[in-house]
Design a protein that fits this description.
Blueprint: H1 3-19, H2 23-31, H3 36-51, H4 56-83
Helix pairs in contact: 1-4, 2-4, 3-4
Length: 84
Amino acid sequence: MSSIEQTSVLDRVLDPFAQSLSPDAARLIVSYRADEHTQARVDELADKANEGTLSVEERKEYDKYLEALHLITVLQAKARRLLS
């Protein structure tokens, strides 16, 4: 599934959830940032991916982070829309 198709599916699935957010919850979602340790690990894996030196296990871990971050990005976009 392409990233465009994945985003479209997430949009449809998350719409009812996003519509039920209170303004306070929406603001919390918009302001979410990964903690320092998590961000450092994602950055490390991203650097290794760019260098082509990820192990198979690191690739799996990096893919999981990317999936989670994609979900959060879609939720944040929906929360921003709700607040505007």
